[in-house]
Design brief:
By secondary structure, the chain is mostly helical. It has 18 helices and three strands.
């Protein structure tokens, strides 16, 4: 691989004779296989060479962020550029992860065993979705870290301790929506601990978040005229824009969740039957939709002209190396960029805002809550009721909408 990216014999000799040459070459080949350009490979090879020389012979035992930063600072001291250290970290960390040498910082919790049991209970007994499991685990882990930091033990916890956590950690940081979610996670965790005799059995019942009324706020999606502006705000000469328009149409017209869009596979699109099969995350089952002509056109244009050649079955890929499926978290930035560029003012500016806009449009079209819930993949109509609270301006705005009018 070195011969393909290095033309100077002296440079080639330096790279070959430096430590971990095989490991560096394998990683560069991996990057090339995933679409890295020649200029990118040369840049990576330079950074990896510096890193390999300074790592030391025991690097395979594990390298953490602290050690990587030390080496990056050494490089910064020898370079005139202001980003030399940051660049080395950006190049070095993926390489170390590729080799299995990266060591994430670990925090030893006094109650790690209890957290592990709670994780198993959520995943294996309750069967909660992956996203819910990750969120609840994060909420509980932060609480346990706070307990360790403030020298509190699980078996001695009092209601006043939990109150101190919410007051000290949450004030000015947690919203009215976040607090009940955190309270629910902690209450469930402490209920499991109490059942095993590891904390006061009365403690879980003392955790109560603020009352959230089901109809206390209007839906937070944009008006449908703004949705049209978002879908029209595309530069067809740019590969990223072609991909993003297909993503935006799936979010706005079908009301999909970001994970459902990121997870969409090629075999879920039936071109001849003009249908789209979506695996609904909450219902945990597939749902069949008609493939709207404008969406079919956007998807076909992306797949035929922009999507990079890959063996992956997922539809949406990154446009820059490494060429791999787009992450669900990246869908937020796809949407937010449009809100910011068009200066569209809404309380929320991510994928779920377009889901709200889709639901509001269906309400205006006269669909029942059951029909809207089915379209959005809800498990019950109670999840759909919030979308029925739209003002008359929004009703007039989307009343004439037809799914087939996007061109």
């Amino acid at each position: 691989m070195f011969e393909k990216i290095l033309t100077d014999p002296a440079a080639l000799l330096r790279h070959r004779s430096a430590p971990f040459s095989d490991e560096r070459e394998r990683y560069l080949q991996h990057c090339a296989d995933f679409g890295a350009t020649l200029a990118s490979l040369r840049s990576k090879s330079t950074g990896l060479l510096f890193l390999a020389i300074h790592l030391g012979p025991n690097a395979s035992a594990g390298v953490d962020l602290g050690r990587l930063r030390q080496i990056a600072e050494e490089r910064q001291s020898t370079c005139t550029g202001l980003t030399a250290a940051r660049s080395l970290i950006d190049v070095g960390r993926p390489w170390l992860k590729f080799l299995g040498w990266w060591r994430n910082p670990t925090i030893d919790l006094q109650s790690q065993d209890q957290l592990d049991l709670f994780l198993s209970w959520m995943r294996d007994e309750r069967g909660l979705t992956r996203l819910t499991v990750e969120r609840w685990q994060a909420h509980v882990k932060r609480f346990l870290e706070w307990c360790d930091k403030t020298d509190r033990r699980l078996c001695d916890l009092l209601a006043s301790d939990v109150d101190a956590y919410f007051i000290g950690e949450g004030e000015g940081r947690w919203s009215r929506i976040s607090v009940p979610a955190i309270a629910t996670a902690l209450r469930s965790f402490l209920q499991q601990c109490a059942a095993r005799g590891e904390c006061d059995p009365r403690l879980p019942d003392t955790i109560r978040g603020p009352r959230i009324y089901a109809q206390e706020s209007l839906p937070y999606g944009p008006g449908w005229s703004d949705v049209r502006r978002i879908l029209a705000f595309v530069d067809p000469s740019k590969a990223r824009e072609v991909r993003d328009r297909a993503i935006l149409m799936l979010l706005a017209i079908y009301g999909l969740r970001r994970g459902e869009v990121a997870g969409l596979r090629l075999d879920q699109i039936d071109w001849s039957g003009r249908t789209l099969r979506i695996f609904r995350l909450k219902r945990r089952q597939e749902q069949l939709y008609p493939l709207v002509p404008s969406v079919a056109e956007a998807l076909a244009h992306y797949i035929d002209t922009v999507r990079p050649p890959t063996t992956s079955q997922q539809v949406f890929m990154r446009v820059q190396a490494p060429l791999r499926p787009i992450a669900a978290s990246a869908i937020y930035h796809v949407v937010h960029r449009r809100f910011a560029a068009l200066e569209i003012q809404t309380p929320h500016q991510g994928p779920h805002a377009l889901r709200h806009a889709c639901a509001a449009r269906l309400v205006a079209d006269g669909l029942t809550l059951k029909e809207i819930g089915d379209h959005l993949g809800h498990r019950s109509t109670s999840s759909t009721r919030i979308y029925a609270k739209v003002d008359m301006t929004s009703l007039r705005e989307v009343g004439d909408f037809d799914l087939g009018d996007f061109q």
